[in-house]
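In this section we walk through a basic example: taking a raw amino acid sequence and producing a predicted 3D structure, encoded as discrete structure tokens. The instruction is simple. Fold the sequence below.
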Amino acid sequence: MAVTSKNLHANQRSAGLPTPLRERFQIGFYAITLLLAAVAIYAVVGLFVGGFGTLADDLRYGRPRTDHLTAYVQHGETPGHPTHLMAVNLNRQVSVIEIPGGDPAKARSISGPYLFGAKEDLTPVTLHLRDMDGDGRPDLLIDVRREQIVYLNRDDAFRLPTPEEQAGLALEAR
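The resulting token sequence is shown next.
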């Protein structure tokens, strides 16, 4: 029996593309794969962050989005019985319920803005009190989407300012 050897690799040519072209193809393939992986990671992180923000708002404001404030606003309160204010974003309609002096029989409702857009029913609404017109009475500020709506404290109730009062508020803000 005779033993012979044959170099199997010497006669084989690479099937398909020449080596430099194959390397360019592989580099392009890896680049596209990395780009797709980066886009997928970005999408997953975006969903996670968005979901985390909604969860944080759920824990803080509940559903429907609600904020409460208790303070003395000079609407018939007695010592130990402050006015309770509650803002609610109910199906994109912002409403404020005022319970003067803690007496539910005297409750009043203040209609706020209607919110337009996707998922605006999940937008938090917050309440603040500050004397905006310098009359010594706290005015109601409603914060929605980084915008403030001022309700002036006049005649034992909160109301929107007239155009003249609004111009005065704009001058005082400067």
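Looking at the output, two observations stand out. The first strand starts at residue 65 and ends at 71. The helical segments are 19-61, 163-173. In the next section we compare this with other chains.
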